[in-house]
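Trying the structure run again after the queue cleared.
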Amino acid sequence: MDFLQWALPRLELCWPGFRKVRRQVIKRVARRIEELQLGDLDGYRRYLETHELEWLRLDGFCRITISRFYRDRRVFDILARDGLPELIRLCRNRNERRLGSWSAGCGAGEEAYTLALIWALQIAPQVQDISFALTATDADSVQITRARRGCYPPSTLTELPSLWRDLAFTADQGQYCIKPEYRRPVSWAVQDLRKNQPDGSFDLILCRNLAFTYFSAALQRKILHHLDTRLSTGGLLVIGAHESLPEMPPEWSFWRPGLPIYCKGR
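Done. Tokens:
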């Protein structure tokens, strides 16, 4: 604990966000200590102080990759029922035929594919004039490789409607692999949210259980500014169910009371 409280601020990360997942991080650090034959955390701390590039390795150890399909089901249900139809009307009012979305910190792709499935199975049958595109980014190249492959253990699909699983996945050696037609709207990129963002503007941004949990207060404000520049007027930002914004940007408001969803202007 003392080690993380010392190290995390140097990475622009915050200790409170890591309190519940600290064992996951320390387990990774312990393997690195054994690899370097440093003995203990104090030895690793001294190593960090004399090896600047090791901080990049430690930063990688601090990436938390817990996810599953349809995580926070209530949020996705309301997006499907009210949020996406509202954004479709927004596109039509702008005489546009494409609804753009971005999953920031997408991990192995469960969140992005959940959104793609909602569109394909609930929205697209009723909407013929608007197409859907989703950009999914994560700093971890291993996670992006997993997302592109699109195969998952059954445990990650437990909250997904069973009919959707049967329609959209094929069983393959104990895993479920998403069918090609449900992959097409999603484009993947290895990209660190702290350093850069995809080009263009988006009508829907999901930035959940990442920036507003693990990043320092100063970095959260910086990220929020970047999200503001990428979110279209009238667009929606979705954050984690237990997260809050460090401040409310001008012209932003809660989209619905009690939900971690914000609207930029109207």
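The two ends are 45 Å apart (CA to CA). Worth checking whether this holds up in the mutant runs.
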